[in-house]
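Please decode residue identities from the backbone states below.
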């Protein structure tokens, strides 16, 4: 027997290549997952920061409204200034809160990784179907 490229050696070589490809694909997907987790951590930090700012602005707005009620019986121009200040702070708080809400509704945890896994699965299914068709042709011959 020759010690070259027998059927058993070709099967072993193909299995090694397959294992190497699987490991490379797995490493790529794991790196992608790590990157996405880092991005999610940054997104959550900004979400918490914006939430804190929104709460602070709401607190200032409520304080201004209380001051407006207290001063309601004083001179006319003070009311206008306090009312405008309270309105601006409350409006700012609402805008930041709306931004926080829009950020929090964006599903982003491992979105790219899951998409890549779906693509990989579709490619494997397509490859499996193609190999099945090739096998059927060989059986017909």
């Amino acid at each position: 027997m020759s010690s070259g490229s027998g059927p058993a050696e070709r099967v072993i070589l193909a299995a090694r290549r397959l294992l190497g490809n699987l490991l490379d694909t797995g490493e790529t997907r794991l790196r992608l997952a790590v990157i996405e987790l880092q991005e999610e951590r940054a997104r959550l930090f900004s979400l918490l920061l914006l939430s804190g700012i929104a709460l602070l602005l709401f607190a200032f707005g409520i304080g201004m409204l209380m001051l407006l009620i207290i001063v309601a019986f004083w001179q006319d121009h003070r009311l206008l200034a306090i009312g405008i200040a309270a309105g601006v702070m409350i409006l700012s708080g609402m805008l930041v809160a709306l931004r926080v809400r829009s950020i929090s509704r964006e599903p982003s945890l491992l979105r790219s990784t899951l998409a890549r896994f779906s693509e990989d699965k579709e490619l494997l299914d397509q490859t499996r179907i193609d190999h099945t068709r090739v096998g059927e042709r060989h059986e017909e011959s």
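Observation: The chain has three helices and no strands.
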